[in-house]
Design brief:
The protein is built from four helices and six strands. The radius of gyration is 22 Å and the shape is elongated. By secondary structure, it is α+β, with helices and mostly antiparallel strands. Strands 4-3-2-1-5-6 form a six-stranded antiparallel β-sheet.
């Protein structure tokens, strides 16, 4: 095989591998967006141990949404999972959020080391009071 033919074949193989790689990368991005919808960017913003709240019920338009369930976030292999508040069931973020009201979720990070989310109790049927406290900082939301 001549040197010129080897160079041409090398360039063609490199070009084909590059094009295939770009196509696969694009398909992977489309899969993530199709799977997670509006939650696709949560992976970039949340960290292990963040607290995610979801609402099971919501008031009329203009009323405050009542966040009455929470979970703890775990990131693993570029995916976001949520442990329920008893740490018994681990679900993907999309599945956990989808069981709420219209996938309405808010994520907070604990600021104070003396704060224990497991000691939090519902007040008037919600955890909204925790979101306004100085013990947690807002990370992101979806709605």
């Amino acid at each position: 095989m001549s040197k010129t033919l080897k160079i041409i074949l090398g360039v063609l193989v490199t070009a084909l591998v590059t094009i295939f790689g770009i196509i696969m990368f694009g398909l992977n991005l489309m899969d993530e967006e199709d799977r997670y919808g509006d939650l696709v960017y949560f992976n970039q913003k949340v960290e292990d141990g963040d607290i995610i709240f979801r609402c099971k019920h919501s008031g009329e338009l203009g009323q405050t949404t009542e966040f009455n369930e929470y979970g703890l976030i775990e990131k693993s292999l570029n995916k976001v999972y949520v442990w329920d508040n008893q740490n018994t069931i681990k679900q993907e973020l999309y599945d956990w959020a989808g069981k709420g009201n219209g996938e309405r979720v808010k994520v907070f990070r604990i600021k104070k080391s003396d704060f224990d989310i497991n000691q939090a109790k519902l007040k008037n049927g919600t955890y909204n009071y925790l979101m306004n406290s100085n013990k947690m900082e807002f990370v992101t939301e979806n709605y």
